[in-house]
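Re: beginner question about structure tokens

> Can someone show what the tokenized structure looks like for a real chain? I only ever see the sequence side.

Sure, here's an example I had lying around. Input first:
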Amino acid sequence: MIKKEILEQYKQKLKEYEKYNKAYYHKNNPLVSDSKFDELKESILELEKKYNFLESQKSPSKTVGFKPSKNFKKFPHKIPMLSLANAFNEEDLKNFEKKIFNFLNKAKNFELVFSAEPKIDGISASLIYKDGKLIKGLSRGDGKEGEDITENLKTIKDIPHQIKKKNFPKEIDIRGEVFITNSDFKNMADKFANPRNAASGSLRQKNPSETKKIPLKFIAYTYGYQNGMKIKSQTEFLKYLSVWGFKTNHLNKQISGIKNLLKNYEEIENKRKDINFDIDGIVYKVNDFNLQKRLGFVANAPRWAIAHKFSANSGVSKIINIDIQIGRTGALTPVAKIKPINIGGVIVSNATLHNEEEITRKDIRINDTVIVERAGDVIPHVISVDLKLRDKNSKKFEFPRNCPFCGSKTIKDFNIITKKEDAVRRCSSDGFECEKMAIEKIKHFVSKEAFNIDGLGKKIVENFWNLKLIKLPQDIFKLNFEKIEKMEGWGKQSVANLRYSINIRKNISLERFIYALGIRHIGLENAKLISKNLKSIENFLLLEKQDKINELIDIDGIGETQVNSLKNFFLNPTNLKVLSELKEILKINNEKEFEKDGLLKNKTFMITGKLDGISRAEAKSLIEENSGSIVSNVTKKLDYLIIGEKPTKRKIDLAKELKIKIIEQNEWLKLLNKTS
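And the corresponding structure tokens:
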């Protein structure tokens, strides 16, 4: 197929995609089924993957499914509407519970009570009440800001406009799910693909009178922020919701123990087909609000809640070939190219095989018939091989001993913690010397949590690389925009937008800059720790002197693994060149001192021994919340050594030698105006 024909095919598919999108989101009238729409979307993405010259801002790789409508104003959520971590089996649940016990420093015999709430497959909504009056209704949006759909939400009979109960909080953000029952949907099946789409389309109507025609329901289940609420648990909160006039899920239960959670899960899954609304799992929340507060959040999800998804969709396919992909850190990932199959409305043609050991353990071969599983947003993976159907022509896969892209040897690192070789095999190149690693590093550099350069997506990075416009990160800030403007698919406006996006990112925080460098084992959290400790780009550059790197071991959360990665990074001449040139181009802002005037401000702490009734993690959180900081080693920088049960004698002796104040748990709690 010649280039012109490929381009014509691509444009035609995009035209179809845009037509279907418009019909679904704006006209509330899907023209094709979900599966047909997903097939079209997948075919566009496959074409883009195969041919580097295909690029469009209208592509599904550039657009978001629930793009905020121009019909509605955007409004920020005071408390973000976060997503939940997922669990798919008993082991996931046990790990979830174990992490809670560890954080709270509770013994396994402690009765941890959960609220188990079936997860409705609908559309999340936020209802803001002030002095009992509904003043704002928002969609979830991107979690940080949603669409103002107040008038549409007011058409739903389940949503009270005014609440006059004496115990109703002065101000509260009630959250829940908008959905359509399966019985109601039967009368609308000719208009919508499924109940969820019907609910989504209805809420996005420009005219609220159109929304009113749809039998939407609302079930409340949580809150975002509140002022004046004195409720101690999730189950108590659900009771109050009913008193205030909200509908709640009648399948909610209060349960303790993993075995009982699993029993309830099985019961709900078995009766799922008989429930009059779609559910895709069960949400478990620690019932006690006080414990929820203590547990807090990690990344973008609460520590105290998890979504236990129902059995993943799976299918049977055949492995056509096994390809190797390489990431920014050099990790080689085997990917099975399978005969395309439809799993849960999505066309799957690739499945991860994780690593070399996984292929050997499962005895996966080319031409094998395999079971492929797709669970939620998790990348599809091969579960097992059907040995009864093994092809006599099946071929064992030989994992490459040399990088397929640059020819460097592939190695397995020795893990200093497990005292074993890593399962992952890596390219031994230093980074930018390997083309594939370099491209992935630049993709990481421009990603959302790094420089967040809008308009410089993965395909454009690859395209610019192939055209030799970008070879190193600093090249992004030296792009020849006149040349780009003359390229196919670009024009004055798109180039102007890209130029603007790049220029505004010339001002960046130190922590994001460190993270953007893509140093192995230095994720966002570690980048924050290093930034907080070093405070300036000048101090970061001093790490070129290897003895300076060794000092980072004193930072709590930074270990030998991270220190060794930094050493390797600064030993590479290309990395030093990148750093030097970026420093001249960018304004890298110094780390600001923590503004909160906490009780432990400017004080450093170290803990040795086991604390009574509180975990290390929680103690650390308490110190940091009160403007103090934690260190890992006893040095002159240490202000207090907190000793618990069975402390390390060596640390105490060293603290005495350095005249560091040694305190017990009670004394530390007094500093916080707390008692044990």
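Each token stands for a local structural state, so reading them left to right follows the chain. Confidence is low (pLDDT under 50) at residues 63-68.
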